[in-house]
Amino acid sequence: MAKPSLSLEHITRKSTLAKNAPLLIMLHGYGSDENDLFSFASELPEELFIISVKAPYSLPPFGNAWYAINFDAEKGKWSDNKQAKQSRDLIAIFIDEAIAAYPVDKNNVNLLGFSQGSILSYAVALTYPEKVKNIVALSGYINKDILPEDVETRDYGHLNFYCSHGSADQVIPVSWARLTPPFLDSLNIKYRYSEFPVGHGVAPQNFYEFREWLENHI
Known about the structure:
Elements (H helix, E strand, L loop, with lengths): L9 E4 L7 E7 L7 H4 L10 E5 L3 E2 L5 E2 L15 H21 L2 E11 L1 H12 L6 E5 L21 E7 L7 H4 L2 H7 L3 E7 L7 H14 L1
Parallel strand pairs: 2-3, 2-6, 6-7, 7-8, 8-9
Antiparallel strand pairs: 1-3, 4-5
């Protein structure tokens, strides 16, 4: 994988608000693209200004990734953490660019990530908490190796997380996701954690639940 570009490709859905719209940035999973999560856009609150971003690394013959994954490795060696940190920082830069380019509220930036996009949503929020408000983290986990060393001393009081996972997930074990609540508790972060009887995906009831959660928090 080559070094990522500083200009992330993306697609948008405009808000019904002319200015100061709550911003929702979507981060897809490994091997997908910006069109994947964007399929949710038409069913989400109309006041949201939605941007779905394509990850910077191409995966031949198709699809994209935020960083390389070794699916045969143990958890500690599963991810290319150097690339993950680069993409984490790239997303933080993109947030600033989006705020400058679109009529959105800089104090109401929300992330929605699936799988690898979920892992990076956690990382962006816990590294750059001043840039975001709410995080919807679907089918992911917290990779502590891509968080800042001073994570335990930072103020995350304004953040709010919706976290969900499939109890039969065959890609990211649910046991990894179950470490999320105690970790967020240790940082005094507000969250909701749910599990659904599915594999590595988003069940309809999962979608309805996070949509309602998002409606109540934007």
